Amino acid sequence: MILDGKAPTGKIQDSWDNYRFELKLVNPANKRKFKILVVGTGLAGASAAATLGELGYNVEAFCYQDSPRRAHSIAAQGGINAAKSYPNDGDSIYRLFYDTVKGGDFRAREADVWRLAQVSNNIIDQCVAQGVPFARDYAGYLDNRSFGGAQVSRTFYARGQTGQQLLLGAYSALSRQIKAGTVKMFPRTEMLDLVVVDGEAKGITIRDLKTGEIRVHVGDAVVLASGGYANVFYLSTNAMGCSVTAAWKAHKKGAFFANPCYTQIHPTCIPQAGDYQSKLTLMSESLRNDGRIWVPKKKEDLNKPANQIPEEDRDYYLERKYPSFGNLAPRDIASRAAKEQCDDGRGVGPGGRGVYLDFSTSIKRLGEDKIRERYGNLFEMYERITDENAYKQPMRIYPAPHYSMGGLWVDYNLMSNVPGLFVLGEANFSVHGANRLGASALMQGLADGYFVIPYTIGGYLAKTKPGKVKTDNPECVKSIADVKAEREKLLAINGKRTVTEFIRELGATMWEDVGMARSEKTLTDALKKIPSIREEFWQNVKVPGTGADTNQQLENAGRTADFLEFAELLTRDALHRNESCGGHFRVEHQYPDGEAKRDDENYCYSAAWEFKGVGKEPELHKEPLKFENVHLAVRSYK
Amino acid sequence: MSAHASDGTMNLKLIVWRQKGPNEPGKFETYEARNITPHHSFLEMMDVVNEDLIKEGKEPIVFDHDCREGICGMCSAVVNGVPHGGFKRTTLCQLHMRKFKDGDAIYIEPWRSRAFPIVKDLMVDRGALDKLIQAAGYISAHTGGVPDGNATPIGKRTADYAMDAAECIGCGACVAACPNGAAMLFAGAKISQYAELPQGQVEAPERVAAMINAMAENGFGNCTNHYECQAACPKGIDVKFIARMNREFVKALAQDKVGALAQSGK
């Protein structure tokens, strides 16, 4: 099937304005008759739930954490992009649009990216109005910094906690609606199935994580904002509870999963210290504004303290290879470059898996106080984890799985191919193409929630009747039974290995074979290993306790079971995409200097996969990508 | 407990609060944590213990955790009598085992406070903090139709002060540390953030009145200046924000209608 993204035609500059005008509206008195279920309360989910509640819809919002304020958007450090051009340095909506399309290696839908760039400015205004304490200069105006893949300063920030402040802004707006009674909040609740009635999404089956109760919530539309799947690699910068489960369950009920092989490996994370490790910690990309990345030129210098290696024996490889972007090269490029240095035997620290991120030049230029003011909390975080003082010696960093550009396929309305199922934020595939630029995730989450879904969901609801499905519908009853059966099956296995052992094994396979560099051989190997891990899981996992109360092992077992199915789809997608682009690097396809080599003739499309059964070949649907405003070109940052 | 410089692994004795449910009696159980390196985080040490428990056929210890990088505010246990273990600006998930030494006995308990009923083992229900924010911990800015972000200049000092207050992660350590179970530091920080910013000043009197009333309604105690909250706060939130809240409250009292609302306890 050739998929239609329903992107508006005509001049891109007017596309969103015209489209908004053409969308059908739901009149204010009718809005309260519709119920919308919002899954996830990160930036996308919380902003959507708050805004839809404000508009007068009945909203029910769900999150697995004990409070909506804890979603992992909170951990975003560096900032949020907008095309305000306050620094007067040549930015514009068009430039943000252009940078994002190019940064995504020409694998995103142009109209969606344009809309994102256009509403980016509204987001900043909205957040300021909510009391988000963005950094200001002494005259009281908003301050900006630079992020990778851009030559302008367009990133707004709140110290090293921008995600936290934006999320608390959205959480405060959500809390206001909870008080007003338009939003009903269900924390410690996990979505375990999508209910589809007559081809439309009309409900979700959830498990109450405190009592173990499994029940259905019905509504007129379902909004999934359940985040990304980087935890398929086990060690990632995601929170422990982040999973593919909600998206995967929707996929199994018919929603297409698009471009799952587009995963982002973030270049600046604290290297792994041991096998027991449970997660990796990101060091904000903003550090690359003032930190210089290097490795020793000579292998015999590897064991020397960094400050005893003279300037001429250091290889500032990003500055050398990409003189115009230097240390601010985009993430995929910076990550691969780090891996290349370490593979070449010039990595520093334990196991040779690290490169230096050095602030000594900036400290000399600006003074330690200025650096402390800009990044103090990040330096503190680094010291707590590594016991090293980054003011005195360079940080050691290494790439780690961080973000997923792929996700459920959506059209321009952010609606999946299952009518009534909308997907926002990291959970969808829409705007970042094959690589996301820094400070664009926060922008997308809030754009989708505050400024896109409030319009586009109306277009769907205006054509439906409210309250069509009740909880006694056979599909609801069946869904509850299926979810219960799956829990019971997990608890009954009573094998010998823990859930953590399985997810670690899967993660190690994915990182080795489907990580930063992929080849036909490693991918084919992974496609053999994953089903065998999955098979063993269902025979030999040990899940203690019962399903009748709080059982964190049961929760993890369910998420791991879904990762074990999803990993296969990710790998298949990576194998099918016989080109390199953005975060997807096939070693067979590179230029002599090691840059990713795209194949626009054969792969200029989004790959949307249809579920056909566990372990069965999924069906590929293509959405061709047209580039009418940005010319397809070799993506160069030299 | 002093920093332990050795690279060797250690064995520790954990004395952990186990409680099956909110209405069940709880008790301390003792466990061994074996072969822990100085680089294990505290929660990774707990993971090791839990893996052992599962293999022995026992139920693992339930504890809240999520981001494991000190920002989500989910992790919450009292370690050796102090919330988060008592290291400056450090959440439990950021605490590393290099701060302990071989043979140490470590007491691990849940947050204990009237407003936070125990869910299971170390997990508590902190919904009362959400209730405080729902009472008025926001600026009533409707989505859309707001002025340009630079329309109202906000001095750097003002923005920094607001950010100092806004850094709160809502973990509830302040409440757990307070002998009165007060949420004054939590509420004071939110009230101060918004009272300082021009956008939040419009609703400042109503906000402080509503949030103070909500504290009483949700089982939180009062402040009697122990400052245990500040000492326990993993983000270093300053008690000056409680003083600011009190000033805001006095200002609200002086206003028509709001003053009556504040005094009514509603």
Describe what this molecule looks like in 3D.
The complex is a heterodimer of chains A (638) and B (266). Chain A is built from 17 helices and 19 strands. Chain A has 638 residues and is α+β, with helices and mostly antiparallel strands. The radius of gyration of chain A is 24 Å and the shape is globular. Chain A starts with 11 loop residues before the first helix and ends in a 14-residue tail after the last strand. In chain A, the strands form five sheets. A five-stranded parallel sheet of chain A has the order 5-2-1-9-17. Chain A folds into three domains: 12-265 and 403-461, FAD/NAD(P)-binding domain; 271-399, Flavocytochrome C3, Chain A, domain 1, CATH 3.90.700; 474-599, Methane Monooxygenase Hydroxylase, Chain G, domain 1, CATH 1.20.58.100. Chain A has helices at 12-22, 28-31, 43-55, 93-103, 110-130, 162-180, 245-252, 317-321, 331-343, 360-366, 368-386, 441-461, 474-493, 499-514, 520-540, 552-576, 600-603; strands at residues 35-39, 58-62, 80-81, 155-156, 183-186, 189-197, 200-208, 214-218, 221-224, 257-258, 263-269, 292-296, 314-315, 355-358, 395-404, 407-408, 421-423, 605-610, 619-624. Chain B is an alpha+beta fold. Chain B folds into two domains: 10-120, Ubiquitin-like (UB roll) (Roll); 126-141 and 151-264, Alpha-helical ferredoxin (Fumarate Reductase Iron-sulfur Protein, Chain B, domain 2), CATH 1.10.1060.10. In chain B, 36% of the residues lie in helices and 13% in strands. Chain B is built from ten helices and seven strands. In chain B, the strands form two sheets. Chain B has a five-stranded mixed sheet with strand order 2-1-5-3-4. A two-stranded antiparallel sheet of chain B has the order 6-7. In chain B, a hairpin with a 2-residue loop joins strand 3 (78-79) and strand 4. In chain B, helix 2 (127-136) runs antiparallel to helix 7 and helix 7 (204-217) runs parallel beside helix 10 (258-264). The model of chain B is unreliable at 1-5 (pLDDT under 50). Chains A and B meet through helix 3, helix 5, helix 6, helix 11 and helix 12 of A and helix 1, helix 2 and helix 3 of B.
